[in-house]
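Repro:
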Amino acid sequence: MADFIEEIVELNEEEVIKILKERIASNEPPMKIMDDVKVAMKEIGERFSSGVYFLPDLMMSGEILRQIFEEIAPLLKDTEEDSQKKGKILLGTVAGDIHDIGKDIVKFLLETNGYEVMDLGVDVPSDVFVEKMKEFKPDILALSGFLTLAFDAMKDTVEKISAAGMRDSVKIMIGGGTIDENIVSYVNADAYGESAMDAVTLADKWMEAAS
């Protein structure tokens, strides 16, 4: 439904929710609606990357996503209860950074694509990541950070995971802000994502390779 996608991309909150409720009322499959949400979020990410949208626009898109998720989450749970989860992902924004919009979008998309996600929130100390790694035993660790100071926190987290003997048991993706291949090498991660959908693409690729 092009109108729905367009309204999300243009950040027209009231119209988005109105169309969403109409689609839910007509018993449209929730995953079909989510497919449109994914298309819209990809376009929003591209607008941000190219300088058309800025941080306030991203925050607005995150708020719209939260509202969509509140409406559609119960329907998605109904459709996913009997399906096997693709894998387990530990997610969090690293110490010193409190940005959660990108992280929340990543969590949303990973969950709707069949992953079990443990979200540790924001400003997460490296020791907490290590502790939860031992407890949750994830297949993938997703570290988020919007500020440049997050790079050292990511590096510290990966170093502590390595020191605990768990680095080889997990794939690590990073995302947010100005991250590129140089930061992947600096942090000793496996890959980075420029958009929330990249997290799903990476997770799918890694889980398929492991199966």
